[in-house]
Amino acid sequence: MKTQLNLPILDMDAIINDIKGSIDSTIPSRLDELNGKQVIFCNDRSLIPIHGWDQDATDEIIIKRIEPLSIDTCVVGIDSSCILVGETVDGFIYSAKCCIALAYSGKMVTHAKIGPMLFYIKSDYDTINSYNTQANNSVEESKRMIRVRLERVLQYKISRLLSNSIILVDGALRASDHESCMLTNIIDICNTNGNVLIGLSKSTSFKPLSRIASSLTKQMYPCYTDVTDIIKGFINNCNSNDNSKDLKDVSILLAKLNSNGLVIRVDMPSTYDASYALGVLAKNDTFHNGYPDTLRIAHHTSVFTSTDVLCLKGFMKSRLGVKEVDGDNARRLLIGKAC
Prior knowledge:
By secondary structure, this protein is α+β, with helices and mostly antiparallel strands. It contains 11 helices and 11 strands. The strands form 2 sheets. It has a 9-stranded mixed beta sheet.
């Protein structure tokens, strides 16, 4: 007698059509709205329109020209990087590097590297609390915590040592969950010593600013516009009160710092004169596609190389007595190489 397989007879077409109907009602495709729209084909948000979007906001904003001011001063760019080096049964090992780059009167002067430094963060409850990380103690959160605290230390020390200078930091001027009042203290010291603290972001998560950025892109000269009220209004509409508190004493600008540069976000305390601060910066730093060379050099110097990683492994095995064990990718073992 032949073996019989009792397989159910399913109407797969009906099942698929039912699933499609549920998807359409849950996530409307709205493809009909794409007709005639400009598109950048990409799989992440790293691409920008080179010549801006057709739809801009020139008539809705006030664009101000950036005029370099004949005031010589020191510009300091500060940046850092952090990587995961290893894992133990109850924690993770990280390494971080920092860099300080200095420019004066439109010329790069010098730069200094600090690190690599090693940090071991255990996953137990007490360690999580002591580092003030989130409850899940994720690797990305720990890396961010290390970077934030290292950069705040450098910003604090530089703001105390220098006077009448410009201090550039990578990112928005917003207090992180990984610090208490460090940013506020830095701003206070900068005000006491006559320093200008400026945060520069290479991109912004606020999509409504794309049209404004396009308006600046089409200008033939360095320029900026204040978008503080626009961002605050957007946040208030989203009922995000925590973010609005962070923006209370900060002016947020979109700026093109040289004539052929990209548009970036610029944060500074609202007590500063934006035209004056950007004019002094334009005179004393040099720019690569609209980004200050001090921050660019600080970034590249703090990036880890394969040699750095090999040296760190050798140091930990020879000096710290760690025992290396072999590992494999669980996802690849379970699903295969195509994952």
